[in-house]
Task: structure prediction
Amino acid sequence: MDVLWESDAALTVREVSTRLTERNLAHTTVMTVLDRLAKKGFARRQRDGRAWRYCPAATRETYVAELMLTALDQTGDRTAALTRFAQSVSGVEADVLREALDVIEGDDVGHEGTG
Amino acid sequence: MKGLADSALLAGVAVGSVLGASALVQASWPRRSPAAAILLWQALGLAAGLAAVGTLVGLGVPGGGAGVARAVLRIGTTVRTGAVFRIPAASGGAGAVTAIVAALRLACLAAGLALLASLCWVLVAASTAALQARRRQRALLSLLARGDPKVPGALVVDYPTAAAYCLPGLRSRIVVSVGTLELLRPAELAAVLAHERAHLRERHDLVLLPFTALRRAFPRSATCAEAHRAVALLVEMLADDRALRARPARELASALVRFGTAGACRAPAGALAVGEGEVAARVARLLQPVRPLPALAVAGICLGAALLVAAPVTLLVI
Result:
């Protein structure tokens, strides 16, 4: 998928294979992977003679945004039921928390000083 | 008349559960023993649902003397003969009253069964939606995420804002953003991972699922929203407690503070207003540890939760 994102034009299976030089993959393996990406909707393909040409269905950034927005619950629905570490806080609460952090770090310095 | 008495008792359990939920939202002891409080929340939810369905069905089935469940079974055999809800053909005052009572009973029974069906349905729908969303997340992660020696066992995604979450399931994953790696020191990062691992290990997503389903089923109900929020916070506190077994409280607290305040300047206003005060509550709890409830009190809460569920079940079956 990274190869497709880095390329400007749509690529054939053989072109993708040659760009994956560091990994010596069989032609059929690359074909299977690209076929699967197309079936899942991550890649689009069009006929070019006897071969398929593949291009990404959306940019990497689009997918990252989708992933993180669902995770951060900013889409408004709570379907994923993901539990995330902490929500963002705003205004007064953020100030209170920053003061608390100063206290924690003050303790750190104190411990380092005595220890 | 026993049928009516049963229904009245069941209605009492339902109303009592809802009142109990309101009281539990206000109570301060849950943060001392989150696990016990979560158990009580589950019992309240289950009891309220069973009792509400039982009340309606109990009013709907004629006769009484036996439990509601048995009465429903009896209907199954007699309804074909048409004897149960036969509208009397006789004219006159007594006949009309009987007809109205029969119609009301039928309406109650239908409402009870509809409530039962919809409760089951929202649970199934919420589970399916969660599974689908997770499958999509997994597919995206397989394309986008990479490993990083700084966070062993977690996946890293190129995203500037601090984010850390876990993807529950059989093939569970912990995901952190590049923003998180930049924001936190190694010790804080370890505390965050310990917290997320606790979520995955104890399947906190399954604890939260019924409450998410209820909230989706009754979006206007303040009680459902409050219950969901309370349980979500308790689950976080529970994971905090588990993380404290491996990491000092100060690391986790400072990770929480950095996390909470880092997003404040970048997150769109209003989008995250839900969690007001929750991060502060968790930080306060870490910095000034509260004494856990005594074992006797926890045992009492467990017993209370068991009785709460046993009451409607008993009324329904016996």
Chain B has two domains: 1-132+292-318, 145-287.
